[in-house]
């Protein structure tokens, strides 16, 4: 049965089921940096006056886009591994190829992160895109936090308009002094093709975590479709991360905190607007969510057979019928909870219809 803790009726919809509440790092001792080849240094040739907005407690979080160069993306550093600080390229499935220098992809308990991984940068390291945003960028949002018990670090957003040949600072210096992932938003509003990066400018050997770097453009698909707003406008309510009882899952169409002990979500969060809806029919394609760690309980549709309960959507199917892919995403079993048929098919269905 659905228990509604918070569900504003305007644009943002949230189901809250149960909010749940670092160990020391096993990393090798902090190693000295050897002299790097000259071409691993970045020359900054000026700076742009870009409005910069700072926000605590994660801030807004947009859904993951599919096409990085035309519409935008959110890069969470989840799809690749890089265990060395030495400069090297990494290919990330949400975006493309990046060059990380004096930086790695961290997965330790002291790495502040959504999900299982985040970028970790030390000294004057950086993470830069090897590809351009061909249609320009409207906004860039970056989550940042101190690594472990390290001191504060300072960093800058950088931009290149000549395929990485030269770079400019963009916006204000960001001071990272908290172990919580906070958000900084850069208002770019630039239609030129460009590539961007994160450049650590201060704090010496203190390490900095960067996660969920979000690029948005004026439209969601390079055409006339309305932009799709964040599925976490009010932030991450339980600070979900890699805990088995508070596991962060960001789907393209909604976000959930999964509780492995209960086998269902603690909460689901999604944005309801016409940008997400259309005329696509229900797929009725309930499926196991294999994006959960293999050690977790992964419910299947058959777990509900003869139980007397409906397979009840958290983010409703009809809130995500703009395309067949959007609709199918709501049928992952991590977006399903046992619900009384009378509630699910009558009063709750009527309430969802009212909101739409």
Describe what you observe in this structure.
The protein is mainly beta and 356 residues long. Helices cover 6% and strands 35% of the residues. It has helices spanning 324-329, 341-355, and strands at 12-16, 44-48, 52-55, 72-75, 88-91, 97-106, 118-129, 137-146, 153-160, 167-176, 182-190, 195-202, 208-216, 242-243, 246-250, 255-259, 264-271, 310-313, 336-339. Strands 2, 3, 4, 5, 6, 7, 8, 9, 10, 11, 12 and 13 form a twelve-stranded mixed beta sheet that branches. A hairpin with a 4-residue loop joins strand 15 (246-250) and strand 16. The longest helix has 15 residues, at 341-355. The chain is globular. Residues 1-39, 60-68 and 220-224 have low confidence and may be disordered.
């Amino acid at each position: 049965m659905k228990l509604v803790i918070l569900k504003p009726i305007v644009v943002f919809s949230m189901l809250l089921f149960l909010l749940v509440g670092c160990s020391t790092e096993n990393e090798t001792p902090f190693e000295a940096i050897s002299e790097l080849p000259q071409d691993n240094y970045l020359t900054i040739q000026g700076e742009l006056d870009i409005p910069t907005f700072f926000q605590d407690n994660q801030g807004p979080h947009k859904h993951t886009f599919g096409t990085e160069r035309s519409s935008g993306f959110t890069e969470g550093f989840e799809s690749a591994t890089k265990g060395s600080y030495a400069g090297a390229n990494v290919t990330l499935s949400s975006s493309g190829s990046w060059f990380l220098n004096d930086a790695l992809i961290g997965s330790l308990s002291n790495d502040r992160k959504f999900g299982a991984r985040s970028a970790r940068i030390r000294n004057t390291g950086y993470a830069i895109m090897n590809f351009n945003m061909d249609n320009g960028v409207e906004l860039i949002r970056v989550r940042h936090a101190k690594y472990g018990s390290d001191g504060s670090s300072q960093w800058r957003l950088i931009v290149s308009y000549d395929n990485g040949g030269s770079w400019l600072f963009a916006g204000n210096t960001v001071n990272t002094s908290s172990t919580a992932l906070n958000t900084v938003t850069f208002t770019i509003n630039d239609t030129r093709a460009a590539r961007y990066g994160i450049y650590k400018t201060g704090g010496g050997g203190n390490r900095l975590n960067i996660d969920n770097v979000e690029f948005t453009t004026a439209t969601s698909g390079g055409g006339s479709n309305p932009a799709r707003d964040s599925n976490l406008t009010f932030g991450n309510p339980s600070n979900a991360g890699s805990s088995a009882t508070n596991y962060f899952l960001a789907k393209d169409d909604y976000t959930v905190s999964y509780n492995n002990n209960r086998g269902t979500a603690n909460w689901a969060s999604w944005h309801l607007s016409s940008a997400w809806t259309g005329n696509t029919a229900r797929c009725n394609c309930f499926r196991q969510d294999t994006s959960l760690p293999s050690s977790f309980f992964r419910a299947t549709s058959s777990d509900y057979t003869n139980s007397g309960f409906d397979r009840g959507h958290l983010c409703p199917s009809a809130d995500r019928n703009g395309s067949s892919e959007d609709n199918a995403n709501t049928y992952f079993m991590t977006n399903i909870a046992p619900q009384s048929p009378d509630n699910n098919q009558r009063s709750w269905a009527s309430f969802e219809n009212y909101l739409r």
